[in-house]
Every structure is written in structure tokens, then in C-alpha cells.
Amino acid sequence: MANGTSASGERDVRFVSLYHHDGRFVRREGAFAFCRRDADGGRTVLHLESASDISRVATPGHAHWDWAVANGMNELLVSVREAEAAEAGIALSDLRFALRSAEGGQV
């Protein structure tokens, strides 16, 4: 919804799109997603995680990094924890998911 809430009245989670190597600059608590921007303009989430310091986790050393790159990762979506919800950004409901299972295949 335009006011940053869902139909149930809960706050929407909003993400900002970054170049996939720029997670090292986000020294904040929040959620991040390894993401592929698709030809049709949509986004497919390849991995979604929360971290107490995104800059220490969303890096090429991450356990899912190589898999995500091999599957087209070209964006890093971040949603930092803020006192106020972001009004602009990419809504979680606008994303597609193609997550890797613990066994190494896609979910």
C-alpha cells in the first residue's frame, strides 16, 4: 500500500537495490537478499537472510555466494533496521524466490 503497510495493517518490508559487491558498505543490522534482476524487470531472490552486521556477512565468502553468482546474482537487496519504515523501495511482495535448499538444490 502507498502508506508502507500491508492490507493486514503490518509494515511492509522494503529493500534497496545495490550492486552485489556493495554489501561491505552496509554496516547495519537488517536483512539482505542475493538477487537476480530478470529480463522482464522482475527480481528473483536466490538467498534471503538477516544479519546483525550486513557488511560482515553479505560478502564473496558467504556459503551461498558462489551458487547465487552461478544462478545469475547481479543485485544485493538490503533492508536495514530503522526506527521508521522506508516508504520507497522494493516490496517483498514484488519478489520471486528461487532459494537453494540445504541439500544444495533449488527449493
What is the topology?
Layout: E1 14-19, E2 30-37, E3 43-51, H1 54-57, H2 65-70, E4 75-80, E5 90-91, E6 95-97
Concise summary:
The protein has 107 residues and is mainly beta. Helix content is 9%, strand content 32%. The chain has helices spanning 54-57, 65-70, and strands spanning 14-19, 30-37, 43-51, 75-80, 90-91, 95-97.
Task: Describe the overall structure.
Strands 5-1-4-2-3-6 form a 6-stranded mixed sheet. The protein has helices spanning 54-57, 65-70; strands at 14-19, 30-37, 43-51, 75-80, 90-91, 95-97. The protein has a single domain (14-97), classed as GIY-YIG endonuclease (3-Layer(aba) Sandwich), CATH 3.40.1440. A hairpin with a 5-residue loop joins strand 2 and strand 3. Residues 1-6 have low confidence and may be disordered. The protein is mainly beta.
